[in-house]
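Per your request, structure below.
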């Protein structure tokens, strides 16, 4: 404990990182919440290097956590959408239309005589 540091400054730092539960809450704030307050206190009261560490932490860990949370929400949204009967019926109908178009194009290509009927000679 540095006795040269003012007791009010030590008390302020202790409020953020004095116990395990306090530092866990502070790290949660640094990652997802109001990180600027915690970073500014560390920068002003301890060392300016903490501002660089806070920004690097926020850009790496904070962004990654938000990305994972966003991915989970998107996955759940798509899962619910895929089970919706109306959406499933529209998707099946669209697939059927595409299949009919492709089969029509195939038979037009196979009907070399152009009479609308594919006979045995046109299969060769």
């Amino acid at each position: 404990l540095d006795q040269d540091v003012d007791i009010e400054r030590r008390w302020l730092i202790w409020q953020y990182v004095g116990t395990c539960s306090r530092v866990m809450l502070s790290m949660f704030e640094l990652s997802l919440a109001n990180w600027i307050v915690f970073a500014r206190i560390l920068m002003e009261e301890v060392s300016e290097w903490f501002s660089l560490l806070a920004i690097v932490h926020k850009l790496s860990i904070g962004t990654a956590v938000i990305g994972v949370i966003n991915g989970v929400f998107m996955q759940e949204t798509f899962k619910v959408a895929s089970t919706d009967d109306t959406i499933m019926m529209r998707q099946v109908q669209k697939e059927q239309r595409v299949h009919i178009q492709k089969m029509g194009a195939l038979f037009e290509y196979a009907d070399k005589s152009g009479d609308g009927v594919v006979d045995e000679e046109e299969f060769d």
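Helices lie at 7-17, 20-32, 35-45, 49-83, 85-110, 120-123.

Regards,
D.
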